[in-house]
Every structure is written in structure tokens, then in C-alpha cells.
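Retro notes, item 3 of 5
We never archived the inputs for the zinc ion complex last cycle. Fixing that now. Sequence and ligand:
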Amino acid sequence: MSVLIKNGRIVTASDDYFADIYIEDEAVSLIGKQLDVHADTVIDATGKLVLPGGIDPHTHFDMPFGGTVSADDFESGTKAAAHGGTTTIIDFAIQTKGESTIKGLDTWHAKAEGKATIDYGFHMIVTDMPHERLGEMERLAGEGVTSYKLFMAYPGVLYVDDGVLYRAFRQAGENGTRICMHAENGIVIDEIVRAAVADGKIAPRWHAHTRPTRMEAEGVHRSIAIAEVAQVPLYIVHLSCADALEEVKRARMRGVDVMAETCPQYLFLDIDTYDKEGFEGAKWVMTPALREKWNQDVLWAGLSNHHLATVATDHCPFCMKGQKDLGHDSFTKIPNGAPGVENRMSLIYHGAVVEKRMSLNRFVEITSTAAAKTFGLFPRKGTIAVGSDADIVVFDPERKETISVDNHFTHHMRVDYSAYEGFKVQGWSETVLSRGRLIIDKGRLVTEGGGRFIKRARVADLLR
Ligand code: URP
Ligand code: ZN
Ligand code: ZN
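Structure as it came back at the time:
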């Protein structure tokens, strides 16, 4: 199989030029001006941007959580991601407390295998780590699972104490791998929640008003301190506010190896959203919660000046009917999470490039290249270069869409609402290739399945 993409403007994190791309089998084999080659498929990209496929390093497909299971599985979730110009996701396998992490990985392989349309990797969520299990972390790394997420939030569910954090951090550091941190003081937050519920504050809005930004900042500060002592590279997931970013900046100034991701919901939505009529605020019950609007400018600036490294979605969808409504009588029972995997590239292109906050190169970096480099996928993924996987998006920079659950150009996620309903965006992923396979052709899904598990390199290998 060969593909020729003609006349496009190729934009990577570092380059911007007009050329043709010739793809043989799964990889880019030739880039040049007016290539005179025969191809089985020819795509005319005149007037379009030709971008490395998006990489979303934070999704939760088929995840048991909050008494239910996230609404997208690996089949529907990866198709929706593909529609939105994302060609690789990194999802989270979960260790059942007291059981082997290897067993958790097997469970997630079974969930994804044969179902995914785009390529995928796994982080491992560690829920306990006694000394006897530490060896499993090296085995996971050997299997290409080279990053681990631990939680300071959700006491009694995914929470681990500082001792477990330190033990896992140290082992991950020794193995040359990376720690991902859900940084929020869940113990204090639970106390605030208990008091609120006792006062009869049970509507969705109280989810946000019981989770102060200081408790996220404290978690960021503490996890950075533990990571420094344990000597492990740290990646703060879903950073939501200026308070928390300040801790990252301070540590980076000291030379600490800490990076952070934010998400479209913290860049585009704010705490007032919870004040919508009735139970509607449940749509945005996620953790961390949406913050006061002024934080958005600080996060955009953080992305522009490299204090923030990536934009992931934390896609964790639950339908309003039958899932979110589990919490009708108390916000504490609303499953935490919101959809977004399909909308990330358009939203960020709009906010970053159309609204002139940063360059096209930086847009590519925060939506693809930085995640590839951080999580051991580069240069196979995250760029367009000879030898790289032909994960490519032909992106229409002019096309305008209104994001809506009813718009079949913006919503293929298996969830009964859009977190960005009514948002007008400019920039749309028109045609998408995954390892040279045409999967989205002018907005239509033309290939299903074929996504593969990708073994990722260790962060230490990237430094050699
Ligand atoms: O509300 C969220 N974020 N749900 C998914 C789990 C997590 O904490 O990432
Ligand atoms: Zn989290
Ligand atoms: Zn998450």
C-alpha cells in the first residue's frame, strides 16, 4: 500500500514548509517538492495543513469508576479520537488493590485488543506497592509500560499514602521510567465534602466548591518534593489552576525534572458552568473541578512559555442518563469525568492559533510532539519525518464547526451530551492516516480496527 499526500503545508513542532509526502506500508518514505511517484492513493492537501497525528496521553476508555463504567470503550473511543485528528492515545490500566499490576495490564490488553482503530499505549495506575511487588514495575517497563499514575485523591478508591508514593517513585526512578501524578489532597477534600453534605449542600456545584485550588497546589508541591528525594521524573496530570502551576514553575526554576499537562476543559470552561439549571452541572463533575475563569489566561500563558508541556483530555465520559444521574441525590455519587477526546485538536487549534496565543509549531508540540517525547514514542510518533509512522492529519485551518452532540462532524463519542455544546471553533481534522492506513476520509470513517499496542521507551533511554 502506498499513499501520496500532495501540495500540503507540512507543519511539525520545528518545521513549516510546502512539500509532498510519500508513504509506503506504514511509514513515511519520501518527502520532497512535486514528487513524481506512483501511489495507490493520492490525497490532495492544497490549502490544508499536514500535521503529525495528535497524541492524547490521558484517556479512560472502558474504565470502571464511580459505580459504573466509562461510556466509551476502545472501539468507540478510538474511532471518536480518529475523527478528531488523534492517532495515538495512552490509556490507563488499573491494578486492583492487593493484586498484581501484571494482571491489571492483561485485563486492559483484553479490553483494547482487536477493538482499537488507532494505536495505543498504557500507563499503569498503581493502587498499592508492597516491597514484594516492586519487581513488577521493571517487568511492566519491559512490556512497554514505562509510566505509572498514582493518586493523592479519591480516598478508599485509588488513593495511596505518601509511603506508597515514595516506594513506587523510587522504583520508577531506578528503572528509568516516569511517574504521572493526580495531585490533590483527597484526605482534606473528603473532610470538606463531609461538612458540605451535612449542611445539605448536595447539588452538582458543590463538587467544585469543596475542592479548593490550594489542595491541588499542595498535592503538586508534595509530589514534587517526594519525586526530588526519590529521584524520578514527574509529570503532573490534568493541572487545572494558577495555584498549582505556580508550584510547577517554582520547581522547574530549581531544575527539578517536573512537567505538567493541562486539558481543554480548564482552558475553555469555568466554575460558573456548575450553576446551570437543575442537575445539568453534573456534566462537568470531574476532578480536579472547573476553576474560576481568570485561571484560563494563566494556563494559556503557561502553554505558550513552556511551563506546561502538553494538552491531554482526561476523556472519561459518563452519560447523563443512567450514569451521571447516579448522583441525583448527592454530588458525591456523580461519576467523575467528562468527554473530550474528539474535540481536543479543534479546540486547541482555535484557542492557540486562531486566537493568536501561539505559533502553529507550538500547537503541534503541545498536541502531539511533546507527549511523544515525554512518553517514549518519539520519533516513531509525534512528527512527520522519513522513517516515522505515517500518522498524519490533513487539517482544514478554515473550516468552522459548532461543537454539538447533534453535529455528526464533531460528535462520535458514545455519550449523550457534549461538554462543549455550542462552542464555535475554526480548524477541523478532515483526513486522517494511522500508520499509512486511511482511516478518516473527508470526515468519514473508512477503516475500522487495526490499531496496535505500542511499547514505549523509558524516559532514561531518551537521554542516551
Ligand atoms: O474526573 C476525572 N478526572 N475522572 C477520571 C479519573 C482521573 O482522576 O483522572
Ligand atoms: Zn486523575
Ligand atoms: Zn484521568
